[in-house]
Design a protein that fits this description.
This protein has 352 residues and is mainly β. The chain is built from four helices and 26 strands. The chain has three domains: 128 residues, no CATH class; 72 residues, Resuscitation-promoting factor rpfb (Resuscitation-promoting factor rpfb fold, Single Sheet); 130 residues, Distorted Sandwich (Glucose Permease (Domain IIA)). Strands 14, 17, 19, 20, 21, 23, 25 and 26 form an eight-stranded antiparallel sheet that branches. Strand 19 and strand 20 form a beta hairpin. The site of zinc ion has 5 residues, from loops. It comes from Anaerovorax odorimutans.
Length: 352
């Protein structure tokens, strides 16, 4: 592996040699007042370098004793620190501090030495900033408008089914003026303290309707538990009448209703308003619904694939109470429909 000479390696080497002599001049972070230097500031002896050039020794910018950049003069070193700090300053900045103790230190350069790499103030500042060799802590006081979130309020309604919701009134965010103190380190916010909050506009609640209506009650619009009397005039329980087996004697027995051929899943509706007196499985009928329409009239809906009505429920004429199927003693999907008048089976087709 080829070893690449790097600036940081050179720094590390250089750092080991540091002896904080009396020539070190403190560059106080915020005030950057260097006027109280112990050593006369002009005491600089020119040096003849190996390449024949004559220069006055350059100065290190140091942070907590570590050399972080090399520039032409002590003044430049001070400028570098100032420049690093200033780049984090903006119109909201109320305070700037540098965490590290900074100073300028003259390089021990002797006659015949190689020319060191000296940076301009801009270069040095850019390098220190990019390597974050100084921690510039700024405090900003910012005032800005912020939204205030609105609350959601629920209101119950029997106009919607259980589980359904609807926005009755859209919420509206409010507005507040917030004054805060933001502490940043090298431009990154590390702490925010709210100093003051002032409401400019109150938020408006969002009102959401939540349904309480149950599904079954939606299907059967009549309320439960009340006696329901039919009109006496029956409607067809399926959407089309296709008699596959009629009422009366059949295979040596009496067929108690009519068989209406329909695809599985077709809706079966109550022939008239009434009360569901049975909804369940019943032997050869399979899934069966019986509806009492009053006046001694009861209708049967058999072989259903699915029962939607519940026993005890009242239904309107035409309400969907079940779905066509082939349960029980059945050879294919159809509705077996019976009409009983005072307990006696009648031909349903006479009533449709
Ligand atoms: Zn039948």
């Amino acid at each position: 592996m080829k070893e690449l000479p790097s600036r940081s390696r050179r720094f590390l080497k250089a750092k080991k040699k540091i002896v904080m002599g009396s020539a070190a001049v403190l560059l106080a972070a915020a005030s950057i007042a260097v006027g109280t230097a112990i050593v006369p500031s002009d005491f600089e002896v020119p040096v003849l370098l190996a390449n024949g050039e004559v220069i006055t020794p350059p100065w290190y910018v140091t942070a907590n004793g570590q050399q972080v950049a090399l520039v032409d003069s002590k003044e430049d070193a001070r400028e570098v620190v100032k420049k690093v700090a200033q780049q984090y300053k903006n119109s909201e900045t109320v305070k700037i501090e540098i965490e590290e103790q900074t100073s300028a230190k003259e390089m021990n350069l002797e006659n015949g030495d190689q020319k060191p790499e000296i940076l301009s103030v801009e270069e040095a500042a850019a390098e220190i900033a990019s390597k974050q060799e100084l921690t510039v802590k700024t405090t900003e006081v910012i005032t800005e408008d912020e939204p205030i979130d609105y609350k959601e309020v629920k209101e119950k309604t029997d106009k919607l089914y259980v589980g359904q919701t609807k926005v009755k009134k859209e919420g509206r965010s409010g507005l507040k003026k917030v004054t805060k103190e933001v502490t940043k380190e090298n431009g990154e916010a590390v702490r925010t303290d709210v100093l003051k909050e002032e409401t400019i506009q109150e938020p408006e609640n969002q009102i959401v309707l939540t349904g309480t209506k149950e599904k079954e009650e939606a299907l059967y619009t009549a309320s439960r538990g009340t006696e329901k009397r039919g009109s006496g005039q029956l409607a067809a329980p399926v959407s089309s009448i296709r008699v596959t087996s009629s009422f009366g004697p059949r295979w040596g027995r009496t067929h108690l209703g009519v068989d209406l051929g329909m695809p599985t899943g077709s809706p079966i509706s109550a022939a008239d308003a009434g009360t569901v007196i049975f909804a369940g499985y019943s032997g050869s009928y399979g899934n069966l619904v019986k509806v009492d329409h009053g006046n001694g009239i009861v209708t049967y809906y058999a072989h259903c694939s699915e029962i939607l009505a519940k026993q005890g429920q009242t239904v309107e004429k035409g309400a969907v109470i079940a779905k066509v199927g082939s349960t029980g003693n059945s050879t294919g999907p159809h509705l077996h429909f019976e009409v009983r008048v005072n307990g006696r089976n009648e031909n349903p087709l006479n009533y449709l």
